[in-house]
Give the backbone structure.
Amino acid sequence: MKLRIFNMLALRAFRGLGNIIGCRSLPSRQLHCSSCQKTLIFERDYELPDGPLYAAKLEKKNHIYRVVSIETGPTELEIILTKDSLEHGVAGEVLSVETEVGRQLIKNFEAAYASPENLAEIASSFTKKSGQTISGRRMLLWLRTREYLTCAMREDVEWTLTPGMAARAFLRYHKLVVPESALKLPDYPITSSDPESWKEHDIGITVNSVDTVAMKMVVVPWTKK
């Protein structure tokens, strides 16, 4: 016969029961449990007698158990986010995270278990509501949390800023890939010879041809790192 003790609270109760009935306690090294997520499997040192089982017929030795093994449960938990987070992702995204992290997010009402019901209700609702893909919503979240984008340009050559040049500058400085067609620059020209060009400008970035984010772009002199 084997018993399973799922956490330290149950383990302490089991030890207390053993003391009450006058049994020999288990060695402390066998009772060690460093995490509440572990399962301890116990086995009787002495098998029970054959035939009908009555408590009156049990001897003290039949109440002595030993630890057979210690099992750890799953280390990852599949969740679905209910709130946007720069650290984890956007609402409606399904993730596999560490068990402790996932339970903490669920406790803070930032995520829910990725059950079939929650997947059908939460994930689909966010996608239909925004019309964006998960990656597109991640990009929108990142852009909206940025104060400005830096466009580093050279001072020793003549240039007039184009969407392609700005896109390459964003790729070098921010590792951000922006198609030329998705980048809208101001109507006035931005040139190297104009001192007013080396300042802050209003631009627009369109994500997946659905949402456009108004951003600030700062033109700064390029320096070799």
About this structure: The first helix runs from residue 8 to 20. Residues 52 and 58 are 11 Å apart (CA to CA). The chain has three domains: 2-72, 76-130, 142-221.
